[in-house]
Each structure stands twice: as C-alpha cells, then as structure tokens.
Specification:
- The chain is α/β, with parallel strands linked by helices.
- The chain has a single domain, classed as Metal-dependent hydrolases (TIM Barrel, Alpha-Beta Barrel), CATH 3.20.20.140.
- It contains 12 helices and 10 strands.
- The strands form 2 sheets. It has an 8-stranded parallel beta sheet with strand order 1-2-5-6-7-8-9-10. The chain has a two-stranded antiparallel sheet with strand order 3-4.
- Strand 5 (82-86), helix 5 (93-103) and strand 6 (109-113) form a beta-alpha-beta unit.
C-alpha cells in the first residue's frame, strides 16, 4: 500500500498570482504563475509511490482561491486517487456550516481546512467555532497550519499554545491535523500531543531530510503514530519530500503509520 499525501492542492491562476506567494516561489524555484494540472499531479504521485492525495480548497478574505467546486472537478479526473478538503468563508459562519454540509460527505470530501495566516485570525477566534461543531457532527477532521508562515504574512496565528490548545479543550471530540510541522514551537507541539490524543501533525512543506531534529525525535517518541506525510504540492513534489525517508530510521510500524496508516484512520480513507 502506497503513501497518502494529506496536504496538496492544484493551484489556480488567481491563487498563483497572490503577492504573498512570492517567497514560496523563490524558495522552491517554481516559476511565477505556474499551476499544475491533475495529470501532472498524478504523474508526480506515481513517481514517488503515492496512492492518494487530499486536495485542498482555499478561501480567504479576498474570496475563493481554489473553490470547493474546482476541487470537486479535480477529484472527478481521478476519483480513486484524489479526495478533497473543503474550505469556507470565516466571515459568514452559517453559510460556512451550510457549505461544509453541502460538500463534506466523508467519501469524496473527507475534512475541512482553514489556513489561519490567510485570515490573520488564530484558530480560537469565535468565527471558527461553528465550523468545528460542523466537523464534529460529520465526524471529520479539521485541518489547519501550525508554526511559522512561509508566505509574507504574520506567523503568530500558527502558534499552538494558546490558540490551538483552546480549541482542543473546547472540542474534545474534534480531530485536528496541524500542517507544516509547527517549527519553531516544537516544545508546544510536544505538550499538545501529551494532553490531547486527537491532535495530529503532518510534515507538509518539508523535505524529510530537512525536518528539525527535535521534530524527528518527537515523532519517534511522544508523537509516535500522530504524524502524517504531506507535501504541500506543488511547492514540493512527493519525490523531493520522500527522498530522506530512510534517513529517519523509523521502525516498520512507525513508517507505515507515517506514510499512510494514521491518515487512513483519521480521515477514514
């Protein structure tokens, strides 16, 4: 059984054109305005042995950057290989709930993702709370970003304590997946993993050989079974990310949980 990539997106031209993408494009060497097709995404997955990718919709204060409708169309190009993560407008909480109920069926769309830095609103802001309740009702995870922000936006919204800790305390039934590792607040990551069994982390935006040593130690210890593989495609390819897998020296059960087991369990794939 191949890997599951829990953070990918097939970017649209309007997302690629956002000014805050500049630093990501510079770091990764991607040309400005480049957007992958579903076929290119599948080819990159096949090259690295990735069976399934969770494609994220994106919505921010400026409107839809990748709409739920666009993600649904992407899924239709390869329904056995793609699943979706819906996104919503935080400024319209009830419409956000309706949108989640409209799209998230646990089969094609298997969760919700909101990126806090895009809104400049930490995840304990009241506008998120109807979304958390909808996720609990549907039995799907809420996915977000933790740690510093690569794009030209403030990083504070990605700090795990107190922002994400408040949510985990208020919604003990909610599974939360924090993307992008959580650096530089790795001690806070450890604290949340000890306190909350429904808190998970993915390695998106990192090639595995570049993971902070403290994070690697965490995923073998307290974080055992809580870490999922992710890429942040198209910023990084699955092949780039997985090249350092052997260097992590994971035990066989840890390797299986990291590559697919935890994701299949949490997202009910």
């Amino acid at each position: 059984m191949g890997a599951v990539d829990v953070w990918a997106q097939i970017t649209t031209p309007r997302m690629a054109a956002r000014p805050w993408m500049e630093t990501l494009l510079r770091w990764t060497g991607r040309p400005a305005g480049a957007t992958p097709s579903p076929a290119e995404t599948l080819a990159a997955m096949d090259e690295a042995g990735v069976d399934l990718a969770l494609l994220s919709a994106w919505h921010g204060p400026e409107g839809s950057l990748i709409s739920n409708e666009e993600v649904a169309a992407q899924i239709e190009t390869a329904p056995s290989r793609f699943r979706g993560l819906a996104s919503v407008d935080l400024e319209q909480p009830m419409e956000a709930v309706r949108e989640i109920r409209r799209w998230v069926d646990g089969k094609r769309f298997v969760g919700v993702r909101v990126v806090p830095w895009l809104w400049n609103l930490p995840p304990n802001d009241r506008r998120y709370y109807p979304i958390y309740a909808a996720c609990v009702d549907l039995g799907v995870p809420f996915c977000t970003q933790i740690g510093h922000t690569g794009p030209l936006r403030r990083s504070e919204t990605g700090r795990p304590i107190p922002y994400l800790e408040d949510v985990l305390l208020d919604f003990p039934e909610l599974a939360i997946v924090g993307g992008h590792v959580g650096f530089p607040w790795l001690d806070e990551l450890t604290t949340l993993a000890v306190k909350f069994p429904n808190f998970y982390v993915d390695t998106s935006a990192y090639a595995l050989h570049r993971l902070p040593p403290a994070f690697t130690a965490w995923m073998k210890g307290v974080g055992r079974g809580r870490v999922m593989f992710g890429t942040n495609w198209p910023m990084l390819s699955p092949k780039q990310c997985l090249a350092g897998l052997d260097g992590l020296a994971l035990a066989e059960d840890q390797r299986e949980a990291f590559l697919s087991g935890a994701a299949r369990r949490v997202f009910k794939l």
